[in-house]
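step=encode ok
step=design start
structure_in=
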């Protein structure tokens, strides 16, 4: 059982921009990982490991001029996006083999820029801090994002269309 807390934050315009950048980078990493896995599957190659996928889609991509902007957000956000992709694939494979109870799960789909619900996750060791005044300071962002109380080990920031 996982415990989850929902909080509403009110970021400033600069913080909204930083969060939007993080949402976009997580979406791009997820889509790049999905595209790479699909291309390898179509070519008949074996399933690429999670570590190799992380090297290709995050580490090596940051070194290219086209994806250098991935370095502007916390690496934890990018790694969690790949973890979400791996979970989606794991759920799909256990579903089609019959190990997963319930209805069949579809294969992972590309994340859309136009989808109003976007999410990023921060783990406990991602160097976010909750300040004395109850504000949250996110990694790679020296400004506060809004009031939040200390809770579970993984923090999720979700933009739900508002």
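sequence_out=
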């Amino acid at each position: 059982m996982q415990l989850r807390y929902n909080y509403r934050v009110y970021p400033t315009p600069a913080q909204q921009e930083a969060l939007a950048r993080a949402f976009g980078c997580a979406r791009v990493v997820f889509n790049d990982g999905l595209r790479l896995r699909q291309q390898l599957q179509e070519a008949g190659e074996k399933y690429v490991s999670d570590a190799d996928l992380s090297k290709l889609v995050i580490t090596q991509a940051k070194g290219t001029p086209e994806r250098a902007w991935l370095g502007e957000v916390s690496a934890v956000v990018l790694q969690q996006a790949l973890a979400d992709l791996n979970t989606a694939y794991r759920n799909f494979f256990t579903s089609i083999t019959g190990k997963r109870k319930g209805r069949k799960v579809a294969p992972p789909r590309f994340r859309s820029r136009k989808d109003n619900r976007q999410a990023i996750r921060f783990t406990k060791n991602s160097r976010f801090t909750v300040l004395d005044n109850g504000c949250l300071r996110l990694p790679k962002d020296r400004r506060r994002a809004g009031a939040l109380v200390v809770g579970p080990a993984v923090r999720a920031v979700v933009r739900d269309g508002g």
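step=design ok
step=annotate ok -> The helical segments are 13-42, 50-62, 75-96.
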